[in-house]
Amino acid sequence: MFVDFQTLRFTRDHTWVRHRGDTLRVGLTDVLTRGLTDLVEVGLPPLGGDVHLLAPCGFLATRTWFGDLFAPMSGLVVERNERLFDDPGLIVRDPYDTGWLFEIRTTGDPLLDTLDGADYLELVSQVP
User: According to the UniProt entry, where is the signal peptide (predicted)?
Assistant: First the structure.
């Protein structure tokens, strides 16, 4: 899987963000998804709903684990990846393309507290 890290911004919580015109597409990094090989369900924020910085906005469930998704920034949900409801494994198999989660329209500086690709790679290289 080739990922152009120059087109993405990252959070320390292993979420990626990609500009798409006036919206931001949100997904999870492969660092986070590696351990989710038996992903069975995903919950996404409602279309037209608001998400708030670092607040729970959805969930992931495996056969043995359940965890919240947290919004990497505040905004209005303008699109969701509906394919994930039928095939949540896309998040694991193709996290940077077909496994994206949702798109938001945000106000203010959406990239204020994010890392560029080089800084993110340095961050994860320090994880044992």
Answer: none
